[in-house]
Amino acid sequence: MSTVELSFSALPVHVRTARLIVTAVARRSGVAEPLLDEVRLAVGEACSRAVEAHRRHCPDEPVSLELRGEKGRFEVTVSDTVPGDLPPEGLPAAALDEGADEFEYGLGEGTAELGLAVIAGLADDVEIATTPKGVQIRMSWPAEAEATI
Question: Residue 7's beta-bridge partner residues?
Fold first, then answer.
């Protein structure tokens, strides 16, 4: 199992850098070339959501990514660190794991659902979880070869 960890300041300009790094690691992990654009776009959506949440609630905290290549899969987890007592910006209650509290997500009606729909349409598998430390969006795609990251 190979893992790459990345964290960046909650600035929109860093989302592009994260997309480029994730794409390079996905390629080395064996993700097929036709899927790389999907990886790049899905990660960009998830990172943009996390950056916006951080800018509103904890601008000094970094956004974190974990990239894993194992068992024919490439997995990306984007994590924010919005304090647990605040609602996770950009996530509708229906998207959260069972047992989560209801909340207002405040990015404009339909915006959150659209971003999550884009991610779900691009990634092979998506899991969204709230934790006491924030929200995690885990996405994965098939990889043709064992990871070389």
Answer: 64
What does the pLDDT look like over 34-78, one tens digit per residue? 999 999 999 999 999 999 989 988 999 999 999 999 889 999 999
- Tell me the CATH number at 108: 3.30.565.10
Under 8 Å between Cβ of 33 and 57: no
What is residue 90's three-state secondary structure? coil
The token pair at 123 is 């990634």
* 10 in a structural domain: yes
Asked, for residue 148, whether it belongs to a domain, the answer is: no
On whether the CB atoms of residues 46 and 119 are closer than 8 A, the answer is yes
Least confident segment among 63-72, 101-110, 124-133: 101-110
Range of the domain at 12: 2-142
pLDDT at 24: 95
Backbone angles phi, psi at 79, to 5 degrees: -125, 135
Of 138 and 132, more confident: 138
Q: Does residue 147 lie within any of the structural domains?
A: no
The residue type of 126 is: V
When divided into structural domains, the chain yields a total of 1
Its pTM stands at: 0.79
